[in-house]
Design goal:
- Chain A: Keywords: Cell membrane, Membrane, Transmembrane, Transmembrane helix, Transport.
- Chain A: InterPro entries: Bact_Polyamine_Transport, MetI-like, MetI-like_sf.
- The complex is a heterodimer of chains A (about 270) and B (about 375).
- Helices cover about 75% and strands about 0% of the residues of chain A.
- With about 270 residues, chain A is mainly α.
- Chain A has a domain of about 180 residues: MetI-like (MetI-like fold, Orthogonal Bundle), CATH 1.10.3720.
- The C terminus of chain A is likely disordered.
- By secondary structure, chain B is an alpha+beta fold.
- Chain B folds into two domains: about 220 residues, 3-Layer(aba) Sandwich (Rossmann fold), CATH 3.40.50.300; about 130 residues, RNA polymerase II/Efflux pump adaptor protein, barrel-sandwich hybrid domain (OB fold (Dihydrolipoamide Acetyltransferase, E2P)), CATH 2.40.50.
- Helix content of chain B is about 20%, strand content about 35%.
- The longest helix of chain B has 18 residues.
- The radius of gyration of chain B is 25 Å and the shape is elongated.
- Chain B starts with 10 loop residues before the first strand and ends in a 12-residue tail after the last strand.
- The N terminus of chain B is likely disordered.
- The chains are: A mainly alpha (about 270), B alpha+beta (about 375).
- Chains A and B meet through helix 7 and helix 8 of A and strand 6 and helix 3 of B.
- The complex binds adenosine-5'-triphosphate and magnesium ion.
- Adenosine-5'-triphosphate binds next to helix 1 of chain B.
């Protein structure tokens, strides 16, 4: 009786888990499937017509799509680099130093994450216009906006990693003849690095993804999300699914590589002997 | 190091004081000389300032006042990484991202030692960790981690090794085994060990010299034997083992030199205490006697100890503990004394609760402490 109960319990949990996973991943499968859809004959773009390699062979066929992708990736990379550096430094300051107004600073870092994007986007536009940059809206104003909202996320991510770090480790390093510089690079940084990496990945996907704030401050520049949004009014070109699938594969590769690396680290170098 | 071979490299703390930024004074003007090559234990209850003291010696915390010397070298304000001192941290603080071998060679690498491999091999053998060299700290047991922390510090051959409750996280059996191991290693390498603990048994079995610390001060310093047999304060009397403390009034002093004794009236009976064991100037005091020095015998039968003698006590409690029995004796003046008796079988059984007994102890085992001190100091620890 209990054995049967346990069997059901174990397998029910497994079945439910698989269902949830399926629910989460079906959209990605549909996207991948649609990237092979030959939509040239049909008016109904959201239905699978017939199989073709065309979309994958000519991913840049839709006018302006690859240009928008290039803009999004450049902004994403730049925003990631700058916000990760600033955010990491800020996190160190907030965790490691006791100063006047520290708790206020902690709160202020959090606030932008809680602000509705629509509000932040419009106030940024107001700011740019007030600063006389109304005519220069484009790549650089988007970049400034993205760096701004990414910093909060970087600070929060790195801060949680850093405050979980035992400060005795740094004291131990100093006790073992490492000067301040060596202590940072040999102990602190390697231990905080996973947090910094996670923050950078988060920053990139936030920047790449952003539509609302970008839309306010883009001027004539078109990012990938804006392109897709615009195209959706007429009918999304099937090549968007190609890009979507590629992004998914890229993310998957990242996760798998990270998992493999951390497993190898956990096993130590025992197997390497 | 560059000094003459015969120069003593004792660790000397003078007037060492630590006031934390919040105003709390954790260490109060500590004066201490720790001889080179000795196994020194700093014993005290939680929060008495042991870790703070070690951190100042290691350079991880700056003293508010006072100086720290090793031999003639003043290291009070030296950076931690420039001191010939290494620490085994309270929770080991092993670097989680490095292997055991990398943890151990961290110190030599930073000091620019070229060939660390042979040193690492040697120290891993000494601490029986050769098998674990390629693992990460998280994959080791508590006892193994403790030995890594020890190896990581020892490999540097510091002049002074500070051990901050290194055995605190281990279970009793492993703890006893590691105590023997630590002692063996210290004798083998001959370095100065400063071992912090709040376990009195550990301090007594391992150290040549024990300093009992309480509320930022050293209460008493000496060999384990001295501390136990002749405590100077009620705190030491209670913190190391247990003591019976009975109120008494000094009625006179007799003899001179080594034979000098003090006569104390204890609820109507005059007891004698050797002057070298009297630690009060006032006319009142706590007469102290260790429970295992208290002898009992059912009333009427002869008691084979010449000494201070009381009749009229009643056994109020008897706890059999295998090797010995703990009796509680209600004295005529209402106080309960404790008596430990070895179960030698001489009696052919326990003394039953309610039995009238005579009590005695040899005068040379008693001590007299200051009556202004709290008779309960140092008791509820642990
Ligand atoms: N950074 C600090 N600021 C203020 N007070 C502190 C600080 N560090 C320690 N203290 C206080 O100083 C006292 C001594 O601390 P310490 O860590 O030296 O105790 P300990 O003897 O090592 O105790 P334990 O056996 O529990 O490790 C404690 O009362 C503690 O609360
Ligand atoms: Mg401590």
């Amino acid at each position: 009786m209990t054995r049967v109960g346990r069997w059901i319990g174990r397998h029910l949990a497994l079945a439910l888990g698989l269902l949830v996973l399926l629910y989460m991943y079906i959209p990605n499968f549909i996207v991948a499937l649609m990237s092979f859809n030959d939509a040239s004959q049909s008016r109904n773009l959201y239905q699978f017509q017939s199989f073709t390699w065309d979309n994958w062979l000519n991913p840049c066929a839709p006018l302006g799509m690859c240009e928008s992708l290039r803009v999004s990736i450049s902004i994403g990379l730049l925003a990631t680099i700058v916000s990760t550096i600033i955010g990491t430094l800020a996190a160190f300051a907030l965790v490691r130093h006791r100063f006047e107004g520290r708790s206020t600073a902690n709160l202020m870092v959090f606030l932008p994450m809680a602000t509705p994007e629509i509000v932040m986007g419009s106030s940024l536009l107001a700011l740019f216009v007030a600063a006389g940059l109304g005519g220069q809206l484009g790549f650089w104003t988007i970049l400034v906006a993205h760096i701004m909202f990414c910093i909060s996320f970087v600070v929060v991510t790195v801060r949680s990693r850093l405050s979980g770090l035992d400060s005795n480790l740094e004291k131990a390093a100093m006790d073992l003849y490492a000067n301040e510089w060596q202590t940072f690079w040999r102990v602190t940084f390697p231990l905080v690095f996973p947090g910094i990496l996670a923050a950078a990945l988060l920053a990139f996907s936030l920047s790449f993804d952003d539509f609302i704030i970008t839309n306010f401050n883009a001027g004539q520049t078109v990012t990938f999300p804006m392109f897709v949004w615009g195209a959706a009014q007429r009918g999304v070109p099937m090549q968007v699914n190609v890009i979507g699938t590629l992004m998914f594969i890229a993310a998957l590769t990242f996760v798998i590589l990270g998992e493999v690396a951390s497993r190898r680290r956990a096993r130590g170098k025992v197997s390497a002997r | 190091m560059s000094l003459a071979e015969d120069a003593r490299r004792d660790l000397r703390l003078a007037g060492l004081t630590k006031r934390y930024p919040n105003g709390f004074v954790a260490v109060k003007s500590l004066d201490l000389v720790i001889p080179q090559g000795s196994f020194f234990a700093l014993l005290g209850p939680s929060g008495c300032g042991k870790t703070t003291t070690l951190r100042m010696v290691a350079g991880l915390e700056g003293p508010t006042a006072g100086t720290i010397h090793i031999g003639d070298t003043d290291i009070t304000h030296e950076k931690p990484f420039k001191r010939p001192v290494n620490t085994v941290f309270q929770n080991y603080a092993l670097f989680p991202h490095l292997t055991i071998a990398e943890n151990v060679e961290f110190g030599p690498k930073r000091r620019g030692v070229k060939d660390t491999a042979s040193q690492v091999k040697e120290i891993l053998e000494l601490t029986e960790l050769t098998e674990q060299a390629a693992k990460k700290p998280a994959q080791l047991s508590g006892g193994q981690q403790q030995r890594v922390a020890l190896a990581r510090a020892l490999i540097n051959r510091p002049e002074v090794l500070l051990l901050d409750e290194p055995l605190g996280a281990l279970d009793l059996k492993l703890r006893r085994a590691m105590q023997i191991e630590l002692k063996r290693i210290q004798e083998e390498v001959g370095l100065t060990f400063v071992h912090v603990t709040h376990d009195q048994e550990e301090a007594m079995t391992m150290a040549d010299t024990v300093a009992v610390m309480n509320e930022g001060r050293i209460e008493q310093l000496g060999t384990p034997y001295d501390l136990y047999t002749n405590p100077h304060t009620t705190f030491v009397a209670n913190f190391l083992g247990r003591s019976n403390l009975v109120k008494g009034t000094v009625v006179g002093r007799e003899g001179t030199g080594a034979d000098a004794v003090v006569k104390v009236d204890m609820h109507g009976t005059v007891v004698t205490i050797k002057a070298s064991r009297v630690h009060t100037e006032s006319s009142e005091g706590w007469i102290g006697i260790r429970p295992e020095k208290v002898l009992i015998q059912p009333a009427g039968t002869p008691l084979d100890a010449p000494g201070n003698f009381f009749s009229g006590a009643v056994v109020s409690e008897a706890s059999y503990m295998g090797v010995s029995t703990e009796y509680h004796l209600r004295m005529p003046w209402g106080q309960e004394l404790i008596c430990f008796e070895q179960n030698t079988g001489r009696r052919g059984g326990l003394v039953a609760v309610g039995t009238q007994v005579d009590v005695s102890w040899r005068p040379e085992f008693a001590f007299l402490l200051d009556s202004s001190q709290d008779a309960g100091a140092g008791i509820e620890e642990e």
